[in-house]
Write a structure and sequence with these properties.
InterPro entries: Phosphoglycerate_kinase (IPR001576), Phosphoglycerate_kinase_N (IPR015824), Phosphoglycerate_kinase_sf (IPR036043). The chain is α/β, with parallel strands linked by helices and 395 residues long. The protein has 2 domains: 3-169, Phosphoglycerate kinase, N-terminal domain (Rossmann fold); 180-383, Phosphoglycerate kinase, N-terminal domain (Rossmann fold, 3-Layer(aba) Sandwich), CATH 3.40.50.1260. 35% of the residues lie in helices and 16% in strands. The protein has 16 helices and 15 strands. It has helices at 34-38, 40-48, 73-83, 98-103, 120-123, 127-134, 153-157, 168-181, 201-207, 218-227, 242-254, 297-308, 329-344, 354-362, 377-383, 389-392; strands spanning 13-17, 52-56, 87-90, 110-113, 139-142, 164-166, 188-192, 213-216, 258-260, 264-268, 279-282, 291-295, 312-316, 348-351, 371-372. Strands 3-4-2-1-5-6 form a 6-stranded parallel sheet. Strands 9-8-7-13-14-15 form a 6-stranded parallel sheet, sandwiched between helices. Helix 10 packs across helix 11 (242-254). The longest helix has 16 residues, at 329-344. It is elongated, with a radius of gyration of 22 Å. The chain binds 3-phosphoglyceric acid. 3-phosphoglyceric acid binds at residues 19, 21, 61, 146-147, 150, 376-377.
Length: 395
């Protein structure tokens, strides 16, 4: 059900799960307010209809304990300026005073609740915490696609206890993903980068049964190369996951998916801007004191060939150490090619994940892709066909 299915809500209290997990600088300023802006259509719609709005979100991973470094207080300030109105901040929303504080809010008021992950019960989906959330409100709205892959109290537990609806940002996100993937465009290519296989193991396995090409880059590729007995020197890798990497390669080779690993790489002895030790090496030829820091030109050229013959691109994760020049080279080359092919109409391109979106923003190409998701893990799981518990509970 969407906001259009809500009846009369004037004076009612809406508990809206947003994802305000945003970068906050040492000065308390929000680094990227995309996720805050994404929630405005839902908040404005509920305000116009006279509801009181309680916003619920996590920030970072404070491990179930209050921690000032992960407080949402600075986010409430930024949100006030985006909304052009006061945003109340409720630090304690489970204690005896919480009900009273909420009852003092008036129709159209917006309040942000302190970080849900200050409570251990959030991640364990503790029924007591979910009831404490539900007791504050009359109905629940999930507007946090990017947190919907987590089965937590604020995404699943509370949704079982209150009448629940999809917010506008969630509806838009799912609509965009469905229309991009729904037509079965083939050949399909997933480009997966980033540092860790461990966080994407399940997704890689699923994707390798779904797409025609799986291109692996970033530090994640190093684990695959090491598993294939290639020398990776001092490169970042998860040695304990070499077996998992081999399993993925094997299952892909039995199906229709072709896995593409780097053939050549940019290496250096230190990760500093333009290191003197920078050179291009074949993957058989990385020295013991070198680190793989980006894809090499041969691999980039091959990746672009695959993209040119693809109809659908799913992209998550940078392909090199893109924050340190010149190791953004392959990530930017691929962003540029994806943007150009999308503009020409030959490619439908989907991208998601904090670093990928940052790289796209830096190169000014975000608007050229078919859809840039607000989600990272949630985006990947959705495109891999894994059911998201926060969405399942709404249906
Ligand atoms: C994200 O940034 O992808 C979401 O907010 C989820 O955060 P998490 O990985 O800490 O659950």
């Amino acid at each position: 059900q969407t906001l259009d299915d809500l009846g009369e809500i004037a004076g009612q209290i809406a508990l809206v799960r947003v994802d305000f997990n945003v970068p906050i600088g040492n000065d308390g300023a929000v680094g990227d307010d995309t996720r805050l802006r994404a929630s405005l259509p839902t908040v404005m719609a509920l305000r116009r209809r006279g509801a009181v709005i309680l916003l619920l979100s996590h920030l970072g991973r404070p491990k179930g304990k209050p921690n000032a470094a992960f407080s949402l207080a600075p986010v409430a300030k930024t949100y006030s300026s985006l909304l052009g109105d006061e945003v109340h901040f409720l630090e304690d929303w489970t204690g005896p005073g919480a009900q009273r504080a909420v009852s003092e809010l008036e129709a159209g008021d917006v309040a942000l609740l302190e970080n849900t992950r200050f409570y251990a019960g959030e991640e364990s989906n503790d029924p007591e915490l979910a009831s404490a959330m539900a007791d504050l409100a009359d109905f629940y709205v999930n507007d946090a696609f990017s947190a919907s892959h987590r089965a937590h109290a604020s995404t699943v537990g509370v949704a079982r206890l209150l009448p629940s609806y999809m917010g506008r940002a969630l509806e838009d996100e799912i609509g965009a993903l469905q229309s991009a993937t729904g037509l079965g465009r083939r050949p399909s290519t997933a480009i997966i980068g980033g540092a860790k296989i461990s966080s994407k193991l399940n997704v890689l396995e699923q994707l390798s049964t779904k797409v025609d090409n799986l291109i692996i880059g970033g530090a994640m590729a190093n684990t695959f190369l090491a598993a294939l007995n290639k020398p990776i020197g001092r490169s970042l890798a998860e040695r304990n996951l070499e077996d998992a990497a081999l399993r993925i390669l094997k299952s892909a080779s039995q199906g229709k998916c072709q896995i593409h690993l780097p053939q050549d790489v940019m290496v250096g002895r230190e990760l500093t801007p333009h290191p003197l030790s920078l050179r291009t090496a074949l993957v058989e030829d990385v020295a013991a004191d070198e680190m793989i820091l980006d894809l090499g030109p041969l691999t980039v050229a091959k990746t672009l060939d695959v993209l040119r013959s693809s109809q659908l691109l799913i992209w998550n994760g940078p392909l090199g150490a893109f924050e340190t020049p010149p190791f953004e080279t392959s990530t930017f080359a691929i962003a540029q090619a994806a943007a150009e092919l999308t503009r020409k109409g030959s490619l439908t391109s989907l991208a998601g994940g904090g670093d990928t979106v940052a790289a796209l923003n830096n190169s000014g190409l975000t608007a050229d892709l078919t859809h840039v998701s607000t989600g990272g893990g949630a985006f990947l799981e959705w495109v891999a066909g894994i059911a998201l518990p926060g969405l399942q509970v709404l249906t």
